[in-house]
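Batch job 17 of 40 flagged for manual review because the log was empty.
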Amino acid sequence: MSDSYETPRSPRDEIEGLPYFPRLCHKVRLQAAGKLHPQYHGNLGRGCDLWTCQFLGVDYAGLADQVRAGKSDLEALAWARENGISRPACEVAWWHSYIRTRGFRDDLAEKLIQRKAESGFAERADILTFFDYIDADEGRM
C-alpha cells in the first residue's frame, strides 16, 4: 500500500463493548481525507459496515455523515443510539459473538475460503473468521 494511504483499524477494536464500530468510523474518516486505499471503497457501507449499522438501527449514510462532521467514535455511537435501536445487554453480547465469528462454519464459510485462496492464505489454519482474515490481510496477524 502506498505511503499516502493508511490501514484502517482492526475489526477487533471495540467501543463500549461493540467490536468493529471504531473500524467503520476510521474508514469513513480515511476516505474523507483521501487516505483510504481504493480497494476498500467498494465495500463501504456493505458487509460488516452494513451489519453494524443494521444492529444499531441506523442508516450507514447518516452515520457516515456524523463521522465526517467531526464526531468522535464515542459521539458517533451516542448519535446512533439516540437515532437507532436500543439494545439490551443480551443482544449486545449476541452481536459481539456474531460479528467476531463471521465466516466460521456459517453461511460465509465458503466465501472466507475463497478470499483466503485469492490472498495466498489458503494454508493458514489460523485464519478462521473474517476478522482473522482482515487482520492477516492488513498485516496485523
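Reviewer: the log was empty due to a logging misconfiguration, but the result itself is present. The mean pLDDT is 95. Unflagging and moving on to job 18.
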